[in-house]
Amino acid sequence: MKRVAILISGSGSNMVALAESMVGDHPARPVLVLSNVPGAGGLAKAEALGIPTALVDHKRFGKDRAAFEAALQAELDKVQPDILCLAGFMRVLTEGFVSSWEGRMLNIHPSLLPKYRGLNTHARAIEAGDAEAGCSVHEVTAELDGGPVLGQARVPILQGDTADTLAARVLPMEHRLYPAVLRRYAAGDRTPLHLP
Ligand code: GRF
């Protein structure tokens, strides 16, 4: 059974989708939900699901990323996860931390990678006049949002869409895609998955 730690910064809706999927014959179980933001909505949701939680407030470390990541790693060492899932975790991790978890860390990104790495993905897709948008689950490498894509889900961009209306159409697809990819990944299957 694989042990999964989920890193969040916000409301944790992807964390809940992942946690609720890891039951029955699923090859993994959640062992920790960790936030870098005090009071992040996802912490209370994790506690309600009976998952241990931890807080490593990045603000305590100012610009000292190495110290922040050492504190992060210390919390992870307590639960010995096999896989890290970044789920709305908004800190960019250093190359050193990423390389120590390479091949064992996933992230969900709200665009059809390699298009629109970084922030404001929905506004940029609308601005560009794209016909469709979506989300991607990828392995995390030192290249921001640049690791191998293991799954994608597409949605249409509709006339009059705003970034918010598009985000509301993409988020339910994230909640389907991320658990589906994690189940395969925990079983050692890295073949890309495309959700209709
Ligand atoms: C999601 O849209 C995710 O793709 C992005 O941040 C948002 C987090 O949502 N990285 P939640 O915290 O999982 O609800």
What small molecules accompany the polymer chains? 5-O-phosphono-beta-D-ribofuranosylamine
Low-confidence stretches: none
Share of helical residues:
25-40%
Which sequence of strands runs across the widest sheet?
Answer: 3-2-1-4-5-6-7-8
Q: Give the overall shape.
A: globular
Distance between the termini: 29 Å
Largest sheet: 8 strands, mixed
Total number of helices: 6
Strand runs, count: 8
Structure description:
With 196 residues, the protein is an alpha/beta fold. Helices cover 36% and strands 23% of the residues. The chain has helices spanning 13-21, 41-48, 65-79, 95-101, 121-127, 163-186; strands at 2-8, 28-35, 53-55, 83-86, 105-109, 132-139, 149-156, 193-195. The protein has an 8-stranded mixed beta sheet with strand order 3-2-1-4-5-6-7-8, sandwiched between helices. Helix 1 (13-21) runs parallel beside helix 6 (163-186) and helix 5 (121-127) packs across helix 6. The chain starts with a strand and ends with a strand. The mean pLDDT is 98. 5-O-phosphono-beta-D-ribofuranosylamine binds at residues 8, 10-14, 42, 87-88, 108-110, 135, 171, 174.
List the helices and strands and how they pair.
Blueprint: E1 2-8, H1 13-21, E2 28-35, H2 41-48, E3 53-55, H3 65-79, E4 83-86, H4 95-101, E5 105-109, H5 121-127, E6 132-139, E7 149-156, H6 163-186, E8 193-195
Parallel strand pairs: 1-2, 1-4, 2-3, 4-5, 7-8
Antiparallel strand pairs: 5-6, 6-7
5-O-phosphono-beta-D-ribofuranosylamine binds at residues 8, 10-14, 42, 87-88, 108-110, 135, 171, 174.
Key terms:
globular; 196 residues; alpha/beta; 8-stranded mixed β-sheet; 23% strand
